[in-house]
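stage 2 :: seqdesign
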């Protein structure tokens, strides 16, 4: 019998970070899931780490082959998934509690069959801070300014992901593009659940990539949303991305973060830039 959940994870040389996710999966009280790993041809011990957890997980499907990026890897993994609901997690993401999937299973029983998306909350953690990102479910307007739901804590019906594969021309905003294409047809619902924890880090959290990410979001919005829609994020976040791109490009991560946090302190704001760059410096 197919599992209820498929955990989709794209990896590449993730041996050091992968136990974060694997430990949280092994601790789940719900065993009605499979882990689908799409590896990009790692040269470290990523595959050996996954295999070492195989006895502690209900089902693991591993495939290692070259891909053109995370969205290509996700498409390949979706084609192999057997679960009704998909969850797309990074190697260092984690399910918040041992009972997370059990609670999600109970909540999803009441989700209408026509709903292809069920959005839970996500806890984002930095070196010195934690904050919860909740879905923005105000209908049509929310997607014009931000992604309406944190993607790692979004439950996606497998049938929807098969019908609308990720656009592999995007490097950073393919998940936002996916939501632009399906949000208004998938009858999304909100789950009263904080399902996933995520550390600051990775390509999308790198301030040097924010300008590229904003540009890709603009392209996705223009392709899929009404032409008169406002720009994604608005003017000030776009200016902030330009500033970050310039400062970090000239000064580097450590000195750039120190300068920007000094400016925040002078404005009476708590420093925050160090939280973004520390995971990148630790890589």
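stage 2 :: out
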């Amino acid at each position: 019998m197919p599992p209820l959940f498929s955990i989709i994870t794209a990896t590449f040389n993730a041996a050091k970070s992968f136990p974060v996710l694997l430990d949280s999966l092994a601790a789940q009280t719900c065993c009605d899931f499979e882990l689908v790993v799409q590896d990009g041809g790692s040269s470290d011990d990523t595959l050996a780490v996954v295999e070492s957890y195989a006895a502690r997980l209900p089902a693991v499907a591993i495939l290692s082959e070259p891909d053109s990026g995370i969205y290509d890897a996700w498409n390949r993994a979706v084609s192999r998934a057997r679960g009704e609901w998909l969850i797309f997690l990074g190697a260092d993401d984690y399910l918040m509690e041992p009972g997370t999937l059990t609670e999600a299973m109970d909540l999803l029983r009441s989700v209408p069959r026509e709903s292809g998306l069920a959005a839970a909350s996500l806890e984002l953690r930095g070196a010195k801070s934690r904050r919860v990102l909740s879905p923005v479910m105000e209908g049509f307007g929310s997607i014009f300014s931000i992604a309406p739901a944190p993607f790692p804590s979004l439950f996606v019906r497998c049938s929807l992901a098969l019908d609308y594969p990720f656009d592999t021309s995007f490097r950073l905003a393919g998940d936002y593009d996916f939501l632009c294409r399906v949000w208004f047809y998938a009858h999304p619902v909100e789950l009263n659940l904080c399902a996933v924890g995520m550390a600051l880090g990775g390509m999308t959290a790198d301030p040097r990539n924010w300008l590229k990410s904003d540009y890709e979001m603009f392209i996705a919005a223009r392709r899929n949303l009404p032409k008169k829609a406002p720009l994604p994020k608005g003017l000030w976040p776009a200016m902030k991305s330009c500033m970050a791109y310039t400062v970090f490009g000239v000064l580097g991560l450590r000195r750039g973060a120190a300068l920007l946090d000094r400016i925040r302190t002078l404005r009476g704001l708590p420093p925050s830039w160090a939280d973004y760059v520390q995971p990148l410096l630790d890589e």
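stage 3 :: structure notes
- Residues 208 and 252 are 9 Å apart (CA to CA).
- The longest strand covers residues 189-199.
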